């Protein structure tokens, strides 16, 4: 397995509220762990929220001896969300803070994903880019109800309104996904500073260019900045390097 993770402040913001974690080596009972969090609130509160969730979830996984991926992540996310919420309501400086979260791990040939908010995980297979996570956003809920057209003017104007975030409420519900990986697959985790600036066709083109993994991630971030860089940018690109399974 190979992975490259980077963040960038973008061209408009003065503070980077995105926080990431990337380990291709074991973390606790998990064989690897990748996290992306995009903080919100005042710049100090957003910084605090994203860092808090990433650092505390990493510590939770490291200390857990559970072999069940989804229950472990679910319990960790709920526990850390409650801690973050309590800090928010007990501190005027941190009031109203929150953060998105995408967490991923590969066990054998299965990719497990947890998601809260509108940061994303894409699966790239055979030069096709597919979004695995579902955005917890106002516009995507309206699209699902048939009340808004994806990409319309109304969609573009309201796409930053998210409907679920770590720390926003005392209780949180994360969505979970699992994908059977195949040889040649990549997956990309990113904040909306990338996904809002670079469309899926361009993401696929940049990932499948004949470059190193680090160059691919740098090119994705450069593309987001070239298209305006309106937000902080976080990207983790992973090449799981799944082996072909020979039939019995």
TrEMBL record:
Matching InterPro entries: PP2C (IPR015655), PPM-type-like_dom_sf (IPR036457), PPM-type_phosphatase-like_dom (IPR001932)
A Pfam short name: PP2C_2
Identify the residues that the record assigns to the PPM-type phosphatase domain, covering every copy. Answer: 2-240
Q: Which domain of life is it from?
A: Bacteria
**GO MF term (any one):** protein serine/threonine phosphatase activity
Name of the molecule in the record: PPM-type phosphatase domain-containing protein
Organism of origin: Hungatella hathewayi WAL-18680
């Amino acid at each position: 397995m190979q992975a490259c993770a980077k963040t960038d402040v973008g061209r408009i913001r003065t503070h980077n509220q995105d926080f990431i974690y990337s380990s291709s080596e074991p973390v606790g009972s998990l064989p690897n762990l990748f996290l992306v969090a995009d903080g919100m609130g005042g710049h100090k509160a957003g910084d605090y929220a994203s860092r808090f969730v990433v650092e505390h979830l990493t510590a939770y996984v490291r200390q857990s001896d559970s072999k069940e991926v989804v229950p472990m992540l679910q319990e960790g996310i709920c526990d850390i969300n409650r801690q973050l919420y309590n800090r928010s309501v007990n501190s005027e400086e941190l009031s109203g803070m929150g953060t998105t979260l995408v967490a991923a791990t590969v066990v054998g040939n299965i990719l497990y994903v947890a998601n809260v908010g509108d940061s994303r995980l894409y699966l790239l297979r055979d030069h096709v880019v597919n979004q695995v996570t579902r955005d917890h956003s106002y516009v995507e809920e309206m699209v699902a109800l048939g009340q808004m057209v994806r990409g319309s003017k109304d969609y573009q104007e309201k796409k930053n309104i998210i409907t679920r975030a770590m720390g926003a409420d005392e209780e949180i519900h994360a969505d979970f996904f699992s994908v059977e990986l195949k040889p040649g697959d990549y997956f990309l985790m990113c904040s909306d500073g990338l996904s809002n600036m670079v469309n899926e066709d361009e993401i696929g083109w940049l990932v499948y260019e004949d470059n190193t993994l680090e160059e691919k991630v740098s090119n994705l971030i450069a593309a987001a900045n070239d298209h305006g860089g309106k937000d902080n940018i976080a990207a983790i690109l992973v090449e799981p390097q799944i082996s072909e399974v020979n039939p019995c």
